[in-house]
Amino acid sequence: MMRLRLALSGILAAVAGIAAGHLVAGFLAPASSPVLAIGSTVIDLTPTPVKEWAIATFGTNDKLILQGSVLVVTLVLAAVAGLLARRRMPLAVGFIVLLTGLAGAAALLRPAARPLDVLPALAAMAAGVTTLVWLVRLARRASDEAVAKGDEATVDGPRGSKMTPAADSAAQRGTGRRGFIGGALGVTALSVLAAVGGQLRAGAQTIKKVVLPAAADKAKPLPTGLETQVSGISPLRTPTEKFYRVDTNLTVPKVDVDSWTLEVGGMVDKPFTLTFAELAAMPLIERDITMTCVSNEVGGGYIGAARWLGVRLTDVLDRAGIKGSPDQVLSTAVDGFTISTPLGVVRDGRDAMIAIGMNGAQLTDTHGFPARLITPGLYGFVGATKWLTKLTLTTYAADQAYWTKRQWATDAPIKTSARIDTPAPLSTIQAGMTAIGGVAWAQHRGVGKVEVKIDDGPWQATKLGPDVGVDYWRQWYLPWDAKTGLHRISVRATDLKGQAQITARATPFPSGSSGIQEVVVTVA
Description:
Distance between the termini: 60 Å
Keywords: Membrane, Transmembrane, Transmembrane helix
Organism: Terrabacter carboxydivorans
Protein name: Sulfite oxidase
């Protein structure tokens, strides 16, 4: 029983520390919360194959799984600290100090860290050590009481001494077993209040509503999509709240638009800085663009189509003027995260932009408020920096971005691909007339045709949905008289240049997945 109390003391000490750190971080910077700081460091240190496995296995829950794993490991180590406190309290305290110290170091080593970011870890350290010492003292008193009553065998005290019935004053003071239980419940309650308070404080940080000017160069009205005809097909425009999110952030930055600036520098003639108002006052374009994450597996959901409002990236770069021979635009987010975009791609005529609006409204915090990069035809990891705050013209030889350092491709055009939305994989449908449908994409090349093959039959041309442009996906469908039995459905796309999608299977690393999607359905 004594060991259980000691282990529980260590666990509750960690819980109290984590909660205290989370509360302080809620008032300073949510990302500096101990568990989040450690989690972000783990993300940075995780090998690419493991990251890809996590995304493929857990999808958008990968961050939640990571945070849970960090928490479990922390609690296990804290339980060890509690057991150490049985004979070596200084060592147990040192263990707690080490754990919280690592969290503080992780917070300070973040790219955009400030000195104050260590305060949550210091709060966690103070709360953890205090709770551990107090609960261990209560645990010993509970053990003394049990020995005095004959309920528990004599146990070893500090440095090998024996706790005997002679030390039964705890029972008389009423701080024995009930005291420990009361202390544990009190720590738990206060920890919950602190954690909830920190979360509420962090959640209370909202982004300011801004008025977006009208675009000088507007997009045409979006045509009616096939979703009105084919049940289950992806809508022509992805609603903002359903647009995919893949990034390395465990917390979404809440940026103060009034103090936000965009710094433009590096190999330029005239470095300058823009406020949001100055950026929004520049000529704006409105474009329908489909974005794809490089982590998207064949047939995956990390793709979305939206209407973006922003400033042409070339307008900003031209204002700065290019000096020397830069070959990349190194973009930096407010948290220090970096992305490399090939300068040649930015200047080849495509509508690369600094976006400030999405689907007729300002950017949400999740999707990069107040400004982000959009580069049609490139996977997001080389052209779609969210929470943008800095543009640097430089060379790949001089500077490497986050993913470049991890051996991902430097020039990553999105591969032509097609996805089956309906019928769903492994589903059971009724025999008779139905529709096979989905979306296909070949950004900056355009979708020329989509074909479907049923079982071992021939490839059949599908009916394409409205054409919104070469940077936008195409819906497609094929009427199908489904016969009873088990059927395999395959799909492939061809771009406007006549180049069919790659059939050979490839994983997302290092330049995007490829292969033909096949689904199996049962027709009853």
